[in-house]
Amino acid sequence: MKNFKLSTIASALSATDRAIYSPATFATFAQGLVKPLSPPAGIAMDDLNVVNPDSKYLTSPLALSSAGVADISPTPKPCIFTQRDRSKANSTILMGDSGGHQVAKGTIILTDAVVEDIFYYETGTCDIGHTLDIPTAPMYDQEKNGEIYSRPTFDSCLFETVKYLEVFKSLGAENHKFLNVLQGRGMADTDIWYDTVKAYNHFGWSFADIQSNPLQLTLWRILRLIEDGMFERDATWLHFLGVGDLKTSLILTTILRMLREWFDGKCEINISYDTKTAFSRAVNLDYMVAPNIRVDQFSCAWGHIDKARWEGNSADKFPASMTSVGKLLTKGDLIYENWQADPDIDEIRTLILSHHNLEMTFLSIDAAHNALDTGQTDKIPQALLKAIEAIKLVLGTKDVTAAKRRLLDRKYLKPLNDAYKKK
């Protein structure tokens, strides 16, 4: 089998026993942090850079940059990713996304040149990449959305994906660390998709649209990977696209721990997941206040900046002081009076708000894991605890046939598929 080890960096990540959260960064954030801007409150631009290993505030161990929003031209605009120091042992791992979401939305047209640009962005700027896929979610949701998707059938999504897998193969994908994307809803379609693309076996696998499938199906897919020997090598990486709620973080950590127990150090296994929430909410002037680690919540509490009510240049403290930047800020550091004497927010302040939200995301994930690992079961929804126990019982068999049998047994199936119930 091929040696799929990424580097000593990935090995360092393997030292943690948690699934790894990756911020899906906005291009405006990545590019804005290398501009000559002037942050308020004594904040330094270098410290806002979340891929700077020397930041005083936050260094993200993993970050995701989508070719769908990044500048992938041969002479890209400078950003924190193109300027990062990859030689440092504690450097952030950068995961590239091939931009399937933007393809589905029609904001990217896949010409031969664009496909090659995506490949070379992922292999040149990123440490890990995603193969180029055509998402199936818009196809399934056509009737609900009231519009015809440009790839209106399952087969059209799958066959075009295979076309791009072949293109990536011809460009030398086997010499790089790519994750092959698994699409589909329901067992029949997901099995067909997997059986069609599994020959393109790279560094690992990326699971799309898992929020539309029951947890049973995620485990089924993983069992199929085990069955086909995808962990019988030095390293395998699993990524879960577009999910980052606290319940999912604990579910993925449990899956990771059980897989590592199953393979007992013979395969270096990592699991990661991503969301853009910190950035999209900041653009809408939302800020994360605190983690709600309670049985009836188990999520993050949010506040909203109403510019009309947040008087410009106010000396009042920013009402979320748990983060490195949050404790430094006043309301006036975020909302200032513009030249028309109206309350306003500019680029650097939006970047600071994004950074606050991102650090709060990490703090919330830490709080959720602390509750699980210290036995604070009174703070965790019972439905989630039962699902976690079911995952342990399914993967704890360390036998694919026995595990599949349990997945089809209502005794295990019900708690798995009730995982996201409120209590």
Description:
The structure is a single chain. The protein is α/β, with parallel strands linked by helices. The chain contains 17 helices and twelve strands. The strands form four sheets. A six-stranded parallel beta sheet has the order 1-8-7-6-5-4. Helix 10 (215-227) runs antiparallel to helix 16 (400-407). The longest helix is centred in the last third of the chain and has 27 residues, at 347-373. It starts with 7 loop residues before the first helix and ends in a 6-residue tail after the last helix. The model has no long low-confidence stretch (mean pLDDT 93).
Class of secondary structure makeup = alpha/beta
In what order do the strands lie side by side in the largest sheet? 1-8-7-6-5-4
Poorly predicted segments:
none
| Cα-atom radius of gyration | 22 Å
- Strand % is 5-15%
Work out the helicity level. Answer: 40-55%
- N- to C-terminal separation? 45 Å
H-E order: HEHHEEHHEHHHEHEHEHEHEEHEEHHHH
Which descriptor suits the 3D outline? globular
Described by strand count, sense and barrel closure, the largest sheet is:
6 strands, parallel
Average pLDDT number: 93
Strand segment tally? 12
Count of runs of 4 or more consecutive helical residues: 17
- Quaternary structure annotation: single chain
Please provide a brief summary of the model.
The chain is built from 17 helices and twelve strands. The longest helix is centred in the C-terminal third of the chain and has 27 residues.
